[in-house]
Target: Trehalose utilization protein
Amino acid sequence: MSTSPIRVTVWGENVHEQRDASVKEIYPDGMHGAIAAGIAKNLGENVVVRTATLQEPEHGLTEEVLAETDVLTWWGHAAHGEVADEVVDRVQEAVLGGMGLIVLHSGHFSKIFRKLMGTTCSLDWRSENDREMVWTVAPDHPIAVGVPNPILIPAQEMYGEYFDIPQPDELVFISSFSGGEVFRSGCAYRRGRGRLFYFSPGDQEYPVYHHPDIQRVLSNAVGWAAPKGAERITPHVSRRPTGWYESGQTLPTADPRLAQS
Amino acid sequence: MSTSPIRVTVWGENVHEQRDASVKEIYPDGMHGAIAAGIAKNLGENVVVRTATLQEPEHGLTEEVLAETDVLTWWGHAAHGEVADEVVDRVQEAVLGGMGLIVLHSGHFSKIFRKLMGTTCSLDWRSENDREMVWTVAPDHPIAVGVPNPILIPAQEMYGEYFDIPQPDELVFISSFSGGEVFRSGCAYRRGRGRLFYFSPGDQEYPVYHHPDIQRVLSNAVGWAAPKGAERITPHVSRRPTGWYESGQTLPTADPRLAQS
Amino acid sequence: MSTSPIRVTVWGENVHEQRDASVKEIYPDGMHGAIAAGIAKNLGENVVVRTATLQEPEHGLTEEVLAETDVLTWWGHAAHGEVADEVVDRVQEAVLGGMGLIVLHSGHFSKIFRKLMGTTCSLDWRSENDREMVWTVAPDHPIAVGVPNPILIPAQEMYGEYFDIPQPDELVFISSFSGGEVFRSGCAYRRGRGRLFYFSPGDQEYPVYHHPDIQRVLSNAVGWAAPKGAERITPHVSRRPTGWYESGQTLPTADPRLAQS
Amino acid sequence: MSTSPIRVTVWGENVHEQRDASVKEIYPDGMHGAIAAGIAKNLGENVVVRTATLQEPEHGLTEEVLAETDVLTWWGHAAHGEVADEVVDRVQEAVLGGMGLIVLHSGHFSKIFRKLMGTTCSLDWRSENDREMVWTVAPDHPIAVGVPNPILIPAQEMYGEYFDIPQPDELVFISSFSGGEVFRSGCAYRRGRGRLFYFSPGDQEYPVYHHPDIQRVLSNAVGWAAPKGAERITPHVSRRPTGWYESGQTLPTADPRLAQS
Model:
């Protein structure tokens, strides 16, 4: 019921697009460009989209940018190790304080995803033009609204189980591949005050981010992950004195954090 | 992002209010009246609220009424057994097809709640003016937005664990009572295409539904439980022929249910 | 760490085996006979297995039999409607009190499973000799110990999503089919004091219950579902007086149920 | 059904016991000594218990020790920052490979717990001799077997919500405090192939680890967290070739990891 547009930052590693002709051909504006365009097209005036890339100072993710970001999307693959730890810490703090985060495909091995999951995030894989079907297993979920069941992707890299992640708070999509594998391809988590969605379709060698149904999922995910509360407050420790509540029903106001804890 | 108002039906058993002077004094317009007023006050033009009671034909929950209801709230206590089974089945079908349902306090023993949970829904209790504190354990949850942590209720019936319910999909609130007991007081579930929220504060002998923070929770729950998709479709069996997807990416349209499954 | 054997009752509808030559050929001792034999073979002296069928008085599930059953397995298909409601209620009460229940394949539409789930339990299907692969997505789970990932079933009926069940407490297996479908084929639930496992592989027209890996899963599931506590106690309502704990650390013993609640 | 004893390593920070007379008086053998004694007393020949402390080389948690540990318990408070990162990484890898981990009380802020959770793990607190009641909300859970509901702790440090953790896979206990606060005090998680249990009762200033019911919970948790499979295998990436399954039902054996994935 909020009326101001959701502020989205689409982060792209932007390495394959610069060095691999095959990727440049599929994504002439960069993968981040394609992702941003799909969200902007679907959400129109309900959203303000910008992009940021690895090569920018602080990877384009300064304190100021994060403070103005409601939802961050993350695609990386070839250069996970080049992402500065302090930027990762900053993103984690923003997520726990309420910023939405959408991690895409090979981002399963990004520092930020592994840090928020606490597991190896490893999986099986094969890049051999498998047909992928993305099945909805939570038809009431806002991220699944308006897409066919299944979404059909003619050719895609295979990602298969076992995918080493915590059991999702909400499992939204399961994919099958023509080689017989399955994968939990749409996984929703709540962490701190923030929301996190992992979505596996999308790869530098396949034009998946131009697929209208995939664009619809990403746009839905932006709406779902946007903060529901007004302020960004990272959870923190507070000492609560005995009988704090006894002065009537008024909560102590000396420590504003207490009322928010 | 939908613009039409949420259609809410507040169902009240309306027995205590008719026979018990103590209740009539607290709730002169009925408990359903107080619940409806709180939602209408908070959500304004974003909502259209009506009430229905046990005493009406089909308890006021005809096929037509349910078809026009986005979210149903349910309060009952003294007359669970008088609710017709066919009405209960009708409500269950509506929920599984996408209607939101909010079950309140002693509604834990209603036919509809027990049917949707599959468990006894039993609990410990004591009506001795305990102080209840309602603590938020999911601060990102839309139902918890805008309420203090904890909500303080000066006097309330005690509901305590063990509460025999399936583990909630999202545990939003936990209450403590001055006698030392705890209770999972705000429990969110997804069932079929519908959403279900159980909220325990509220009793015929205490003015809890006049409490602004409780009204806020109920109003938030209405927003959360409202259907996200356009149509109400109860899940059903479909036979899917081999190779249904091979005619390009078009899904079969002969059976419209298949595309929706 | 208990040393007495687990008492297993394998319930079979026993209709197809009596009337369909094709089924009788695959399962000359009945499907229940094959299921029981696999469990007995794998668990040896750690288990005592008996069978019961629809045609027996009270379907072989008297109060006495259930009182002596630690884990009940359930296969039905053609005659769900012939199972008496009072037997279903009895089984539900036993499960909520602590008895383990393993529901197999077409048992998804049994009265007992639908009653415990609260949803339609509908799904997509096709019986056309699909190859099924059963993938483990919870490798730490006791039910998945000792089976390959995936289990390969050369020919099977297809069961596909959307499967209308509550999100499992633990999702153990996901199946793929050669036609491209996926299915949450191993779903673990806790309900009341009991444990429930749904496992979809197994059909009257395919020799799946002779498959060693499937037998291993069923045997593992028996161990997992066996009660962990000593007594069977269905959850129930108790009134807890104010200050019950104040007589030192001793719990009130007047109501034995209170100490157990 | 394994017959070899569970190998438990009880890790203690061992700082308060050395420097604070009040703690030394309550725990003359160290807190780790008391924890180890309680487990050994309850589990007898089903367990082999050793201790390790911060002050030992590699904090007593060498590769060899971890390789011989089925379940590790962790208590720390004053010196979280002194735990070497490489030991933390080693413990994390062991957990994801199958080792059980039990994190106690102020261990909520240990490096290993925060790393496995991915959140701040912050909470509210007060050390003012609150009475704590530990309520069971999962009566079927093996960790809750044999303890009263609630466990009464006459005096304890208060830990209150909001506790910033991922929603537990299984919420076993909820505590209340005489000051009115609540806390999710018994939280079970599965991570990788390992199991993790957080249990909050226990503090250096209160004799909680001498409490028989608390010792029972810790002993139960050891049984629950012990690995179910035979080998410790950290999840990892594998490339799965197309048609790997087509050579009959035999899985490829060239890469032993594949069969284990």
Q: What stands out?
A: Chain C touches chain A at residues 131, 133, 135-139, 149-150, 160-163, 167, 170-171, 174-178, 180-182, 184 (CB under 8 Å). Chain C has eight helices and ten strands. The first helix of chain C runs from residue 16 to 19. The longest strand of chain C covers residues 124-136.
